[in-house]
Amino acid sequence: MNFRQLDLNLLRVLAAIHRTGSVTAAARTLSLSQSATSNALGRLRQFFGDDLFVRSPAGLQRTRLCEQVAPGALAHLRSLEALVTGLGDFDPLHSDTTWRLSLSDLGETLFLPRLAAALRQQAPHTRVVNISVAADAVAAALQTREIDCAVGILRPHHRGVQAELLFREQYVAITAQDWRPASGRAGKALTHEQLGQASLVLASPTATFHSSVEQMLAALKLADRIVLRGRHFGALPDVVTGTDLLAIVPTMYAASLTQRKVRVWKLPDAPFYDVRLVWHASTAREPAQQWLRSLLHRLFGRVPRPEEGPPAGASPRALERGAHGPTSCAVSGARPRPNSA
Predict the structure, then answer these.
(1) Cβ(231)–Cβ(279) under 8 Å?
(2) Which of 52, 46, 49, 65 is CA-nearest to residue 23?
(3) Would you say 261 and 241 are in contact if contact means Cβ atoms under 8 Å apart?
(4) How many CA atoms lie within 13 Å of 2's alpha carbon, on the beta-carbon side?
(5) What is the Cα–Cα distance from 338 to 55, expressed in whole angstroms?
(6) How much is the pLDDT for 309?
């Protein structure tokens, strides 16, 4: 094979199919037509003299040659892209950069409107594509540059993946407004006994799956109280207002439901969750990526960035609470108010 005959853009197609296991899904992430993606795969097969991916009942399976070639080729492609895109300063007013993010359905609802509004004002020619990657695949997607960054309840432990805490909150419960505990007083918080008497509904989105709620319920011996499990949070308000069920949701989501007829309850021993911005180290010095990460932190961060230092006049005790303790407010840019849930 002659390397000079290889179009390096085809390696982006190889990366997308390698991660998604689907020509259709790869075309969607690359903003290409399915026919163009299939044609690119055909050219890759011709160049390597190998099928690269073969069909099976479980989807496309990678060949041995594909597994040998893809990781090394994609690493070099990533380095080349970082070198080229990192040259010069970033001019948001004139740039036509396309950013690829990973947000869950909930993250898209809570973060994307404010991000879009800010970009239309500050970087009007740029574009954003949300590629919702499952939590366990985020590191690989960052490494292959399928996505530039991800925001969510993520716990990155992979080499080369960097993270920044945006904020920390607790889970709360939502019910219909007229819902009342089976026993005891109906205050702002539920007791262990009241929670144990409720029928529960949970959502476990793959893009930001967080097992701490399941662990809390197991510790309280309440796992058998879960009567409905879903993949998305969007349906939960209608579920609870139309039934006697109680849903456990992130505080930021509950705070966004002010126009819905739901009641918010504090939970006993509610677990915390950390919302992080994650990216790959290879993009750490790219001006465009630095600008986007700075914007995301200005819009949604509630703790100081390490390079920015503490806010003027903040006491060490207040900073410790802000960085490690519970905060609770809608994702609206307002400063958190203690116990606002």
Answers:
(1) no
(2) 52
(3) yes
(4) 2
(5) 54
(6) 40
DSSP label at residue 271:
P
Instruction: Give the number of residues written for the chain.
Output: 341
The Cα–Cα gap between 337 and 213 comes to 23
CB 18 within 8 A of CB 144: yes
CB 272 within 8 A of CB 326: yes
Who has greater pLDDT, 259 or 179? 179
Q: Residue 245 above 60 pLDDT? A: yes
Give Cα 96 to chain centroid, integer Å: 24
CA gap 328, 335 in Å, rounded: 9
Determine contact, residues 156/163, Cβ cutoff 8 Å: yes
Q: Where would I find the beta strands (DSSP E) of the chain? A: 53-56, 59-62, 98-102, 127-130, 149-152, 161-176, 200-203, 226-230, 246-250, 262-266, 272-280
Per residue in 75-127, pLDDT (tens digit) is: 777 777 766 665 567 889 999 999 999 998 888 989 999 999 999 999 999 99
* CA–CA separation, 203 and 196 (whole Å): 18
- 189 DSSP assignment: B
Exposure string of 301-340, with b = 16+ CB inside 10 Å and e = fewer, is bbbeeeeeeeeeeeeeeeeeebeeebbbbbbeeeebeeee
**Measured between alpha carbons, how far is 53 from 41 in angstroms, rounded to an integer?**
9
Inter-residue contact 132 to 104 (CB < 8 Å): yes
Burial of 110 (0-12, 13-18, 19+ CB in 10 A): buried
Decide if 19 contacts 137 (C-beta within 8 A). yes
d(CA 138, CA 51): 26
Which neighbouring-strand residues pair with 277? 151, 164
